[in-house]
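@channel sequence for tomorrow's demo:
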Amino acid sequence: MYIVGIDIGKNNHEATIIDEKGIIIGKSIKFTNSHDGATKLLNHIIKNIGDSPVSFGLEATGHYWLSLYSFLLDKGYTVNVINPIQSDCFRSLYIRQTKNDTIDSFIIAEVIRFGKYTNTKLSNERTLALRQLCRYRNYLSCEVGELKCKIITVLDQVFPEYEKLFSDT
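structure tokens (generated this afternoon):
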């Protein structure tokens, strides 16, 4: 079994392949956060380990991981999504605690290899869509409230009698 650790970024991701002993297979690969980038990742994996079983590990970093996660699940792979705090704690086991994308992807793969992680709980698509809609509605409600306050401030300065003449601003 091989493990691919992926360090997630906004525009680019970095992946490192390791075997069950933690030995790095080939070089790490940098790929874009796009369909073409995900395909490049799969081609890199096939080139280095063929059709051997592989498990993926990646951090839940903002929303940038969601498209790659969905892509890999659609392809039938096992994908473990971990909290970045877990990989940060694991990093302290190494003497040189340098931080870069290549090392981060290796650390993520190591966390999966050791099995000392908890998968992030993921909601289904409908729940995610409802959450986004609720957050957007809340944002719009706050905006309306702020605009009302600004209008009242201007009215109080320009037309102080407004409040006595009209019942509702």
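heads up for whoever presents: Residues 125-165 form one domain.
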